[in-house]
Automatic annotation (TrEMBL):
Keywords: Isomerase, Metal-binding, Zinc. Its cofactor is Zn(2+). It comes from Pseudonocardia cypriaca. This is 4-deoxy-L-threo-5-hexosulose-uronate ketol-isomerase. One of its GO terms (biological process) is D-glucuronate catabolic process. GO terms for molecular function: 4-deoxy-L-threo-5-hexosulose-uronate ketol-isomerase activity; zinc ion binding.
Length: 276
């Protein structure tokens, strides 16, 4: 498990491209038959990627979280962004298709990931935060949950947002999670941009062609920077940072938050005319 310590907006002006990528971009989440994990000290979130190919892959406890098993003091939302697969939680199998989300609550002990026979390998993206109580493991199929249509084709940001784990959907302690898909011809995500000073957020971009990139904007609204993000890569977005972007091809992304509250609309909008 890689550890990344929390950063301040005052650090942004002095960072070069390599430093920005090292602190905020997670590049190698999906490696065959491994669990790749990053612990960010922004709201104590863990991001992990699992790509089972030859056999099932168990989720370890990791010494960095000081627990006997991963979910002893944590919860997680897990979205499959690859081929069909199965997540086994304490002996119960959950078939998780592409774009579907499984919430795993505090107290689960044995969690393993597998790809379906004959299918492309599954790619499971896990977003975890500390939890103070237990909620039941719950599966939401792709396209389920609360669906919100946002944006406009005229401004190239027409998108469908599926809320899976949130205050009016699958219950959790902290985690809020869903998937957004851009409509054909739309490339901008989360525009107008916003910050939410009470919650960090992470984006996992997927369904992006190998020769395409998303230009992800981050930083304070008056001191923005950008990251060029490829398919299967994640961006850590501190609470003080905007998070929006433009793709050179169509794409989807998993968004997930943890922090002070679970109110999806608790955000401070930033019109692009006020960004620098």
């Amino acid at each position: 498990m890689e550890q990344r310590y929390a950063t301040s907006p005052e650090q942004i002006p002095g960072m070069d491209t390599a430093q920005l990528r090292r602190r905020y971009l997670v590049e190698d989440l999906f490696v065959a038959d491994e669990v790749r994990a990053v612990y960010t000290h922004h709201d104590r979130v863990v991001l992990a990627g699992v790509q089972p190919v030859t056999d099932a892959v168990a989720l370890p406890g990791f010494p960095e979280i000081r627990s006997d098993h991963f979910f002893e003091h944590r919860e997680a939302g897990i979205v499959n962004v690859g081929g069909a697969g199965t997540i086994t939680v304490d002996g119960s199998d959950h078939k998780v298709g592409k774009g579907s989300c499984l919430y795993v609550g505090r107290g689960a002990q044995e969690v393993a990931f597998a790809s379906a026979d004959g299918a492309d390998p599954a790619r499971f993206y896990l977003f975890s935060a500390p939890a103070h109580t237990a909620y039941p493991t719950t599966l939401v199929e792709a396209g389920g949950g609360t669906v919100r249509e946002l944006g406009d084709g005229v401004t190239s940001n027409r998108r469908t947002l599926n809320q899976y784990i949130h205050e009016n959907g699958v219950r959790s302690c902290q985690v809020v999670m869903g998937v957004t898909t851009l409509h054909d011809g739309s490339m901008w995500n989360t525009m107008p941009a916003h910050t939410h000073d009470r919650r960090m957020e992470a984006y996992l971009y997927f369904d992006l062609p190998a020769d395409a990139r998303v230009v992800h904007l981050m930083g304070e609204p008056t001191e923005t920077r950008h990251l060029l993000v490829a398919d299967g890569q994640a961006v850590i977005s501190p609470s003080w940072s905007v998070h929006c972007g433009f793709g050179s091809a169509s794409y989807s992304f998993v968004w997930a938050m943890a922090g002070e509250n679970q109110c999806f609309d608790d955000m401070d909008g930033v019109p692009i005319t006020g960004m620098r």
